[in-house]
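Changelog-linked ticket: S-adenosylmethionine example.
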Amino acid sequence: MAGGKIQKKRHQSMKGIGGGGIPFEKSMGQHILKNPSMVDSIVQKSGIKPTDVVLEIGPGTGNLTKKLLECAKSVVAVEVDPRMVLELNRRFQGTPYASRLKVIEGDVLKCDLPYFDICVANIPYKISSLLTFKLLSHRPVFRCAVIMYQQEFAMRLVANPGDSLYCRLSVNTQLLARVSHLLKVSRNNFRPPPKVDSSVVRIEPRQPLPRVSFKEWDGLVRICFIKKNKTLGALFKQKGVLTLLEKNYKTLQSLRLSGNPEGIAEGNEITSEDINVLANLMDDISMADDERENGDEDEEMDTELSSNMLEGSSFKDKVMSVLQEGDFLDKRASKLSQIFLSIVEVAAQDYFDVSNYFDQVIFFLFSFLVLFSFSVKLAFSINSGNLIRILMATSEGQPNIIFFS
Ligand SMILES: C[S@@+](CC[C@H](N)C(=O)[O-])C[C@H]1O[C@@H](n2cnc3c(N)ncnc32)[C@H](O)[C@@H]1O
């Protein structure tokens, strides 16, 4: 009887044993790709050149690493689990690959990444968004990243305006990169199998980056996606949104009056702070529950309300009339046909200036919404000669100025 139990227990633990007899650690997302033809497909779709330095994140027992070494000049692999690092070094020791493989032991989110041409990785899903934005902020810019994500996360990355999964993650990622879906990978290709299916996505950083302050950009996108099913009219009518717009508008005015140009954000260099802003609330948990995430933001907005901020309703009326003029009051951000990025691309082509900041706010709203749904070039030619600048707020409530120049 007792012997039977031991036998059963031994069999169960064997299911989770990696190469070299290492028990897999679920907390580190250790789901090893066991299907060699799937590994081949990923490597083949990566388009690795013999001159490429490849970055692999989470090499695990090295199945993908071996294939990468077969095509690339060299591979730098970052692995957090010391047992896997040992296993990996053991696997390639004494082989012709050893001199072309460098293993860095550590957490990829915490370490400085080396130079690489291309990143190929089957990553632990819980670091998906932070890693994506960390890669996108890496300099010098790499050619592309081919990454395995949880399928729903992948679909959000590549979603287009109008798709049901189009969200902040889609907008912010596509602001910085071109993304495309490469292949679906069922859970049965892994050992142990995860609870969800996966997808491989190609990410090609945009160069040069759009000239926009990313923090402020995200402030705008947050408002548009606070509640995905709410109309823009309802979103921009919220007291919290109007209060923040007006507060930041006033801050900009006083900065300008005091001749402090420092208050104007200009950056088009992405910083680690930007990564956190863009990646924030986009990780797997929030991804699976947009409405809950957005509900929290709603609360945040409401708690920031201050009754004396909205002096009279003229600010709100102007914002509403802009929305009405463009026929956007009843439109939803997720359903509009133009992508956010169009605005940046077009705005980056010119530098505009007007002296009245209130008009700038209104103009931005107008431009934003017009560009959103009509031909970008056409809409912009109608409005050329103006500055696109808006005061927006992030969750920290700091004064932020959307500034395209
Ligand atoms: C999904 S497994 C992939 C293993 C292997 N590349 C494969 O395809 O079979 C993820 C790997 O990432 C490692 N890992 C988890 N968190 C990490 C982190 N923060 N930094 C670096 N590696 C990490 C795990 O130890 C594991 O080896």
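Closing comment: Example verified and attached. The mean pLDDT is 71. The longest strand covers residues 177-185.
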